[in-house]
Amino acid sequence: MNRLLTSAFALILAAGSALAAPTMTAENAGGAMLTNADGMTLYTFDKDAEGVSNCAGECAAIWPMLAATADDKAEGDYAVIDRADGTKQWTYKGKPLYTFAKDAAAGDVMGDGVKGVWHIARP
């Protein structure tokens, strides 16, 4: 019986490891916000279309995408999109997710409101 439980637990862990979706782990004055696995704030970009990232080149250097792998699976409100450059990116409710290069530590929100088009991703 212990062997069966151990095998089942290992299967659950393996299945969970493929999903590296963002998690809601932080709050600020505005309420709950989405973060990556390191606790860094995630952002959305008003110029993105549903399920399509419009942030590339210099934009992507300042606003690194929340990268997904070929093994990552959509779950709930989270999905994985293919970008024009062939990489994969996580979305939340159809909105591509990014971090901000100027956020230095978990919980920083320096990107909120930048140029009026970048916003903290909120559940």
UniProtKB/TrEMBL annotation:
UniProt keyword list: Signal
Organism classification: Bacteria, Pseudomonadati, Pseudomonadota, Alphaproteobacteria, Rhodobacterales
Species the sequence originates in: Albidovulum sediminis
Coiled coil stretches, renumbered: none
Keyword Transcription attached: no
Stated name of the protein: Lipoprotein
Signal recorded as keyword: yes
InterPro entries, per the entry: Lipoprotein_repeat (IPR005297), UCP029720 (IPR014558)
Signal peptide: 1-20
